[in-house]
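Hi everyone,

Forwarding the result from last night's run.
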Amino acid sequence: MASSTLAPRAFIQQQNLVEQVADYLTQAIIQQHFLPGERLSEVQLSRDLGVSRAPVREAARLLESRGLLISKPRRGFFVRALNAVELEDVFDLRLCLERHAIQRLAERYTPEAQRVLKQQVDVLCEAAVGNDGTRRIEEDLQFHRLMLHYAGNERMLRAFDDLTHELRLCITLITKTHEAPDTIATSHFKLLDALESGSPAACREAIDYHIGVARDFVVKGVGETGDSSDEDSDDEDVLSR
């Protein structure tokens, strides 16, 4: 085995640093500090975060793989701007996963699953009355993740986890996906009712409506969007690929 010029401890620290920068950028995108189509400055980010440019660049590549950023040759990285067709694709895949999951869960709905999901709805209701939009999104996604977890298919859960990166971006493209934050929380009670009925058909109907409402609000709010970052640039401070 060839020896590495990078010490293990230094490698681990570097990897952790990349993840920390990626987490910061993810939150900044969710909170719309960086808007769809906006170009990221490698130099400015490294200065703001007090790190070198290398972990910033690696974090950007990581977020590109997660669908939050796009790269353009000789121009750098930009916050991904999804159009209505792409939004439909994301929600369509989400519906496929969750439709199967909730029907599967209805056949194995244990007291533990019922208790944990009810507790998560309570947490979501609590988050709905606060001003932290990021927390509302995360608690909402956590409910659905728990639903897939108790459905008992780990590969399906991993597919959902991969999708949530883009799903966060979809939801944050508009101010809200429901008329009021509390409706996001209360809408989950219908999913619990369907699960408690034990009817796969009722579960399918409930999840189709639940995700359909979110999809319709997001797509309606965003519509067809263009790429707002068409100007050429070879500036050194652009986050380069």
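Residues 31 and 133 are 8 Å apart (CA to CA).

Cheers,
N.
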